[in-house]
Amino acid sequence: MTSMLPPTRDLPPGRQARIRAEVERAVTGRKSRRLAVPILAAAAVIAVVTAGVVVLRPVPSLPQPAVHVTTSPPPKTPDFGVPPETVKAIEKGCAGIAGTGEAKLYQLLDGEVRWALLYSDNSALDCTMGVGGMEYNSGFSGTEVNWLPGHFSIDHSGASSGGDLNLKPVYAGVPGNRTVIGRIDDRVARMTYTIEGKTVEATIANGTFAVRIYYPSNWVIPDRQEQGIMRAYDAAGTLIATDSDMWNKCFVNPEGKIVHGDRRMDPLKCEPALPWKPR
Questions:
Q1: Which pLDDT tens digit goes with each residue over 178-217?
Q2: Secondary structure of residue 167 in the 3-state scheme
Q3: pTM of the model
Q4: Average pLDDT of the chain, as a whole number
Q5: What are the φ and ψ backbone dihedral angles of 87, each rounded to 5 degrees?
Q6: 21 phi and psi angles, rounded to 5 deg
Q7: Of 32, 149, 208, 273, which residue is the least packed, with the fewest Cβ within 10 Å?
Q8: φ and ψ of 242, to 5 deg
Q9: Residues 17-36 as b or e (16 or more Cβ within 10 Å = b)
């Protein structure tokens, strides 16, 4: 037996590190743990672990599709060049004097006198304003306002002698006139009225037309009136209809009711009427 220590020997490669690890586990009882990275709800991230350090890198957001919001245009209100309260007064005054119930203004016209074209549910009104001491004075003709006998409808055609022939002095100086009013479809862009060798342009607005020819205040309606001619043209200037297209004809709605023409005719021999759509 000897007291000499054995000579020092080098440990095999890696052995020292393994021995150290075994001692640490025996002393501390620690076990290896995984690093938990919380999920971020607000943005996607990528976790990169390098030497025990967690680096969070934001992921670029994907481009979102553009959102296009489409809204319907507001209903168009005709501009008559007067305040809304004036329009309401004309509608109330003209309908009241005619006794047709509520009426809507479609044209406001200025010539030698001021007058308006209105429609109620069942009538066409030509209303003169400020003539003969009357704020409103309206004539009217019954008509089926929802239907057209083709491209246009003549809803009233008439004449008035000059005011000098009236027994009331308040009408002195008021001109005579011929007046034609009616409705049109979407194809009509221009209308003319020809009578006594004279052709005049109709005023077109809001799905209606209006014609008024003025005569001197001493003009007398002829005993034998000439039949005037209305002509309708499209935007290209092509003649598409005349009032003679409606003569001796009748027109029915989808229910087979005659809405234009002689009501005594056989509905089965009538042509289909077209719906009127005010512009």
A1: 999 999 999 999 999 999 999 999 999 999 999 999 999 9
A2: coil
A3: 0.72
A4: 82
A5: -60, -45
A6: -65, -40
A7: 32
A8: -130, 165
A9: eeeeeeeeeeeeeeeeeeee
